[in-house]
Amino acid sequence: MGFKKNVKEILSLPTEMKFESVKNIFEFFGFKLLKFNGSHACFVNEGTNDDKKKIYTFPTVNGRNVKKWYLKEIIRFLDLQEWNESEKWRS
User: Fold this and answer.
1) Which among 70, 78, 73, 61 is positioned nearest to 26, based on CA atoms?
2) Is 84 exposed, middle or buried (0-12, 13-18, 19+ CB in 10 A)?
3) How far is CA 2 from CA 6, 28, 51, 54, in A?
4) d(CA 72, CA 91)
5) End-to-end alpha-carbon separation of the chain, Å?
6) Residue 29 to residue 56: CA distance in whole angstroms
7) Are 64 and 18 spatial neighbours (Cβ–Cβ below 8 Å)?
8) Closest CA to 17 of 62, 63, 71
């Protein structure tokens, strides 16, 4: 599934979303999977000279899916709603 489809899916707030799709979104914004211990995934973005390092950790369901509540938090953290609106004007 392509990146834009992943963004569209997360913004529709499904009950659960595949971890690989969420990972794809984080990677697009420059995050790397730092570690994946047990049921928690930790992403890190080293940032640039002006930005501080950003870290985001969230639990998964059996390492495969991410629950709706965490999808809402990821949307806020990555500012996906605003990003999606700005991309509509570019298309």
Assistant:
1) 78
2) middle
3) 6, 11, 28, 24
4) 25
5) 19
6) 12
7) yes
8) 71
Those residues with Cβ within 8 angstroms of residue 16's Cβ, 6 or more apart along the chain or in another chain: 61, 65, 66, 67, 68
Going along the chain, which residue ranges are E strands? 16-18, 32-37, 40-45, 54-59, 65-67
Whole-angstrom distance, CA of residue 65 vs CA of residue 17: 5
Asked if residues 13 and 68 have their Cβ atoms less than 8 Å apart, the reply is: yes
**Per-residue DSSP letter, 30:** T
pLDDT at 52: 74
Enclosing H/E stretch for 46: none
- In the structure encoding, which two tokens stand for residue 68, read together? 């709706």
Tens of pLDDT, residue by residue over 64-83, are 999 999 999 999 999 999 99
Q: Which amino acid is at 87?
A: E
- pTM (2 decimals)? 0.88
